[in-house]
Amino acid sequence: MNYTRLRILELDGTEAFDTGGDELIVLPLSGSCRVEIDDEAFELEGRESVFSAVTDFAYAPRDSHVTVSGTGRFALPAAPAQRRLPARYGAAEDVPVELRGAGNASRQVNNFASVEAFECDALIAVEVLTPNGNWSSYPPHRHDDLEEIYYFEISGGGFGYQRVYDGIDVLQEVRSGDRIDLPRGYHGPSMAPPGYDMYYLNVMAGTVREWNFVDDPDHAWIRGTWADQEIDPRLPMTSARRHA
Fold it and tell me: CA within 20 to 30 Å of 68's CA: 34, 38, 103, 128, which one?
């Protein structure tokens, strides 16, 4: 993996680090924190869990010094950057929430750092929530010129499955805290068994900041069946609304 990075920070106190040549985002998975980036500071309200709300976040550019203070679990998706953009705060209420697919392929995408929603030099990052019994990352597809990381959390201590293939098919059981690196090739579906909702953080970067989305031609026809199906009524699973 040459372009994508992801660190999960378990914090009860303070941690400081330099971004070096990478741009990164501080994304609360659970808990809240204060993020200081050089001489700027941002208070992140965060959330109870990835299944409770859309969260706010902070963007740190390359060549900056970052201090994170708080309690909780925080994802730090990152990618090498050429341009040094300004440090910024991303409000939860400004995150575009997209409902994608239909029927049992319905899922929710929180586009907090998608190509269209938030300016980065190279990094693309979104969250996907899949209600139990549904499939996401479907039909199977690839992103040309991009590497990809999937980081999973599963509700209720459960499990899910992720399929990837690049000449060889691999079906991997995933649980909370698991990660799958995809340097190339097709991937999908991501399967949430009955009883267990699935979350994954999708981190992408490569030689371009474009989706370069290509369906597997053997299964692309499935997308055409959605026109006659309703979105799963359990969606959206979360919003920017704060939970007491």
Answer: 128
Closest CA to 126 of 138, 136, 143, 114: 114
Residue 235 lies in a domain: no
pLDDT of 244 higher than 60:
no
Residue 174: CB atoms within 10 A of its CB come to 21
Closest CA to 159 of 176, 139, 134: 176
What are the phi and psi torsion angles at 155 (to 5°)? Answer: -70, 150
Residue partners of 134: CB distance under 8 A and separation at least 6: 104, 105, 106, 107, 192, 232
Sign of CA pseudo-dihedral 199, 71, 205, 39 = positive
- Look at the chain and report how many structural domains it folds into: 2
**Same structural domain, 102 and 206:** yes
Are 87 and 102 part of one and the same domain?
A: no
* Global pTM value: 0.95
Q: Could you list the residue range(s) of the whole structural domain that residue 133 is in? A: 97-228
Same domain, yes or no, for 132 and 69?
no
In three-state secondary structure terms, 223 is helix
Position 242 scores a pLDDT of 43
